[in-house]
Amino acid sequence: MDKLCFFITVAVLSLNCLAYNLPTDQEALVAFKTRIISDPNNILVKNWSTNTSICNWIGVSCSRKWQRVTALDFSNFGFSGTIAPHLGNLTFLSYLNINSNNFTGIIPLELSHLRRLKEINMGSNNFIGVVPSWLGAIPELQHILLDDNSFSGSIPKSLLHNNSKLQTLQLAYNFLNGNIPQEICNLSALEYLSLRYNMFTGSIPFGIFNMSSLRELGLTNIACQVGSQTIFVMVSRN
């Protein structure tokens, strides 16, 4: 009898958690929707209805077991707006792709709460500010794609510390400056690195060219120091 009561209690608690988490995910997505100022294909108007499950909304994927949001893919939707910090409440999210839209502003700090995130693709938008250093603290992160934006400042070293799972780092076509950190050479799983078309100065760490894991390396059109001369590097390895 005691065991039966225990299992009933656990089941009720699980249902209560599920009942709480689904509205939390919905609230996060509704907040995201309110920050969209242009939706040329009327995707949100036609499809994102609060009368239907968020798991049926275009661009949203959920886990089968818990019906929690695990992936968002809004690539090439033509959205304009800013990113709602509420997306940081999607604690089951592992994949975030908003590539090729017209998002502006900075990437909210609240996204650092996405501890299950494996891939973040915000390429080909109009984001500004610095590359978020907190990306280096997301334990499961494997792919960072922030190319073709307006990020400035230097590459934060904390992005590269203890990031043994990182396979992709795409920072091309921004306004990044300063030195290319030596710590990049410590990314033992890195396969794709693109830093081309930025404003780096100083020397390129020679260790980059000896990284055995690299399959593609893009350093095209980077001014760097070699000896006492500044040259433009034209390197692309694939």
TrEMBL record:
Where can this protein be found? Membrane
Q: Which SUPFAM superfamilies match?
A: L domain-like
The entry's keywords: Glycoprotein, Leucine-rich repeat, Membrane, Repeat, Signal, Transmembrane, Transmembrane helix
**Matching InterPro entries:** DNA_repair-toleration (IPR053211), Leu-rich_rpt (IPR001611), LRR_dom_sf (IPR032675), LRR_N_plant-typ (IPR013210)
Asked if the Swiss-Prot or TrEMBL record annotates the protein with the keyword RNA-binding, the reply is no
Q: Which domain of life is it from?
A: Eukaryota
Q: Which GO terms describe its cellular component?
A: membrane
Record-annotated Leucine-rich repeat-containing N-terminal plant-type domain positions: 23-63
**Bilayer topology term:** Single-pass membrane protein
Is Metal-binding tagged as a keyword?
A: no
Positions the record marks as coiled coil are none
Q: Which Pfam families match?
A: LRR_1, LRR_8, LRRNT_2
Q: What residue range is the signal peptide?
A: 1-19
| Name of this chain's protein | LRR receptor-like serine/threonine-protein kinase EFR
